[in-house]
Amino acid sequence: MTKRILAIASGGGHWQQLMLMRRAFDHHDIHYVTTLPGLAAQHGAAPATTIPDCNRNEKRAVLVVSWTLLRLILSVRPHVVISTGALPGVIAIALGRLIGAKTIWVDSVANAEEMSMSGRLARRFATHWLSQWPEVAQATGATYAGSVL
Questions:
Q1: What is the pLDDT of residue 117?
Q2: Span 57-83, average pLDDT
Q3: Could you tell me the domains of the chain?
Q4: Are β-strands 102-106 and 29-34 bridged in parallel, bridged antiparallel, or unpaired?
Q5: Is-contact 18 84, C-beta < 8 A?
Q6: Whole-structure pTM value
Q7: Distance (Å, rounded) from C-alpha 45 to C-alpha 96?
């Protein structure tokens, strides 16, 4: 059965890791979301939406991103929301969970010592919460299913 998937990642390493997982989404209806204009087009990721970025210190930006993602999620109506980070991904996972979507957080491979702050927040909302490091997964209760790199 084809599922609608919303795949979201901030630019940089988060986006690179999401792109490495693309083959897992073949045969599904996928909509990509990122924070850097032109990034999705560089990778041939379409359809795609560019949203503003935010971090925990920018309260107004968090509200803008939340509103933008809410409108997008209500439009796309994904069955699954997956993110490799960062805060916009956490927001998308929380909103996706509110509409009944399955939600997947894959913490960045860069976090070899501990779960990221965004990952710790995502734990509250993610139906599947993964680390790319077995030691981090064991210490936090996350699932380890391998690394994308």
A1: 95
A2: 98
A3: 4-144 (3.40.50.2000)
A4: unpaired
A5: yes
A6: 0.96
A7: 21
Token duo for residue 19: 């792109």
Q: Dihedral sign for Cα 81, 82, 85, 90, please.
A: positive
For residue 6, the tally of other CB atoms under 10 A from its CB is 26
* Dihedral angle of Cα 60, 66, 71, 75, to the nearest 10 degrees: 160
Burial of 102 (0-12, 13-18, 19+ CB in 10 A): middle
Closest alpha carbon to 143 in 106, 89, 112: 106
Convert the chain into a string of H (helix), E (strand) and C (coil): CCCEEEEEECCCHHHHHHHHCHHHHCCCEEEEEECCCCHHHHCCCCCEEECCCCCCCCHHHHHHHHHHHHHHHHHHCCCEEEEEECHHHHHHHHHHHHCCCEEEEECCCCCCCCCCHHHHHHCCCCCEEEECCHHHHHHHCCEECCCCC
Q: How far apart are CA 6 and CA 61, in angstroms?
A: 21
pLDDT at position 1: 83
Adjacency order of strands within the sheet including 102-106: 48-50, 29-34, 4-9, 80-85, 102-106, 128-131, 143-144
